[in-house]
Write a structure and sequence with these properties.
Layout (H helix, E strand, L loop, with lengths): L15 H12 L7 H8 L3 H11 L4 H19 L6 H7 L5 H12 L3 H16 L13 E4 L9 H17 L3 E3 L5 E10 L6 E8 L5 E8 L6 H28 L8 H14 L2 H17 L4 H16 L6 H15 L6 H13 L3 H14 L4 H13 L3 H14 L6 H14 L3 H14 L7 H10 L3 H14 L5 H7 L5 H14 L4
Parallel strand pairs: 1-2, 1-3
Antiparallel strand pairs: 3-4, 4-5
Helix pairs in contact: 1-2, 1-4, 4-5, 4-7, 8-9, 9-10, 10-11, 10-12, 11-12, 12-13, 12-14, 14-15, 14-16, 15-16, 16-17, 16-18, 17-18, 18-19, 19-20, 20-21, 20-23
């Protein structure tokens, strides 16, 4: 279904006039466009333009203008440039009334503009404490990246940003080269416009097929803000990683079986591990066993296998919980000598926290953020560690940083679950249930979410919803008992575990 302003999935051609109007609004979202102005751009009457927008975009031109303004304002707030003022951002994108802007922003994004900006300050502070560690790439393909295209006015800014972006990519283990011959992927970037309208447009292209696999736009670049450029470079590297990872997985999927190495097998296994469901987990472990037979010391395969084995316990995929925990612990201990990049460390943090080794999980997760302050996986795991420690507000901020960095990552839904669980531990049961329902809508196979969703509904007094949630849980796990939930549940604080258990019993789950 086509939603929002995405006309790319429309089943019939979108009128050229509508596209011209959307392009004009995006190029200048702060302009006080009148319907007459927009109709002139479309080359049609105002009434026809209204009808076409409702038919093909799902909203009126005025509503589209407001939505694009909100999206542009959020992009700028997420960049967290030093000295940015919310009032200035609101005015720049067509919202002269600050109160109405805040209300519309909160309704759309679930938080106030000041909360978004405050979170970016915390993120920037973390980056500022990060030492300049460069981690050598292992297995990963090279990426070609040359100078950023820019006018003479922006040439110095373009050169500085290119250096910052090269450093950010290298930090996460991506080998950056100048020529395309040895690179599977090409990153291009250009700076357009002047003054407040300066923007960066970046694209990632598969050099073999010519297919664009990722694009990014940053508005309101400032030539004299070094910290802001470094912040932007880290964000671009973070946003690029999930798409690059998917491209690598796709390449591994298309390789002949006889050509698969340990890294290829680990890549093939990764979607199954990230799915957090039983069938994906089983497929992943078969591939990871083959990877470790090929290379017993492969870091990524070892870390993924450690996480996959303990998943089987936590998400009720096995009846042999003790054996699975023991195998996971064995792999974690083995991986202790193989910690060489942020991705491996973040995955180990997942495994360790589910094994109740909080101090070790916290240590490796912090190290992951030291190597790559833009690692969405490490920020998400640090959020879960805070949930387990009973620190819900800190957890929510960390989950939201992970979602800001990589909202389309396959594991993003787990951060949404995490926000729901953090709200549960804070006693905000109805709101916690709402976030967990959202996660289930995005990832319906994660039936285990009902273990905490059902209690949230019970404690919020939402009896019909609690009954439906419990029915879904028992339909998938017909023999599940409260005792088994206690054995498999992630390590919530004791008081929260008692609430979950009591609510499940009240809902009707047998002891």
């Amino acid at each position: 279904m086509m939603t929002g302003l995405d006309v790319s999935q429309a089943t019939s051609p979108v009128p050229r006039g509508v596209r011209r109007v959307l392009d004009a609004i995006r190029a200048n979202p702060g302009c006080n466009w009148s319907l007459t102005d927009l109709a002139a751009i479309a080359g049609t009457s105002g009434r026809t333009l209204q009808r076409q927008f409702v038919s093909f975009v799902g909203k009126t031109p005025r509503a589209a203008l407001r939505e694009i303004g909100l999206e542009s304002a959020r992009r700028e707030l997420l960049q967290g440039a030093p000295g940015v003022r919310i009032m200035d951002v609101a005015l720049r994108y067509g919202f002269p009334h600050f109160g109405r802007f805040s209300i519309a922003y909160r309704r759309r994004y679930g938080e106030t503009p000041s909360q978004t900006l405050a979170r970016q300050a915390a993120f920037a502070a973390t980056l500022g404490r990060t030492p300049a560690l460069l981690v050598p790439a292992r297995d990963r393909p090279a990426m070609a990246f040359g100078p950023i295209e820019a006018s003479a006015e922006n040439a110095e800014m373009a050169a500085d940003l290119a250096d910052d972006l090269t450093a950010a990519l290298t930090r996460v283990g991506i080998s950056v080269v100048a020529g395309t011959r040895a690179a599977r992927h090409l990153l291009t970037a250009a700076i357009r416009g002047t003054g407040d309208r300066t923007q960066l447009v970046a694209r990632l292209v598969d050099t073999e097929t010519g297919r664009q696999i990722w694009a990014h736009r940053a508005d309101g670049l400032a030539r004299d803000e070094t910290a802001g450029r470094e912040h932007l470079a880290v964000r671009i590297a973070a946003a690029l990683q999930p798409c690059l990872r998917l491209a690598e997985i796709d390449q591994a999927m298309r390789k002949p079986a006889e050509c698969l190495g340990a890294y290829d097998l680990a890549l093939r296994a990764m979607p199954g591990v990230l799915s957090l469901d039983a069938s994906g987990n089983a497929r992943a472990l078969e591939l990871l066993d083959r990877a470790l037979q090929t290379d017993p010391d492969h870091p990524l395969a070892t870390a993924l296998a450690a996480w996959a084995h303990v998943q089987r316990v936590v998400y009720h995929f096995t009846s042999a919980a003790a054996q699975e925990r023991a195998r996971s612990l064995e792999l974690v201990q083995k991986a202790g000598t193989l910690r060489n990049d942020a991705t491996v460390l973040a995955i180990l943090g997942n495994a360790l926290s589910l094994l109740n080794s909080f101090d070790a999980a916290d240590l490796v997760t912090r190290k992951a953020l030291t190597i790559d302050g833009g690692s969405a996986w490490a920020w998400s795991r640090s959020g879960w560690i805070d949930v387990y420690k009973g620190e819900p507000q800190s957890a929510i901020e960390r989950f939201k940083i992970a979602l800001d960095l990589a909202p389309h990552d396959p594991l993003a839904f787990n951060s949404i679950v995490g926000i729901g669980c953090a709200l549960f531990t804070a006693g905000q049961y109805a709101e916690g249930a709402r976030w967990q329902e959202r996660a289930l809508a995005e990832h319906p196979s994660s039936i285990w979410v009902h273990r905490t969703l059902c209690p949230a509904h019970v404690l919020a007094g939402q009896v019909p919803q609690a009954r439906r949630s419990l029915d879904a849980l028992r339909q998938h796990y017909p023999d599940l008992t409260v005792s088994e939930v206690q054995q498999g549940m992630p390590p919530l604080p004791p008081s929260q575990c008692d609430l979950v258990v009591g609510a499940l019993q009240e809902a009707g789950l047998p002891a």
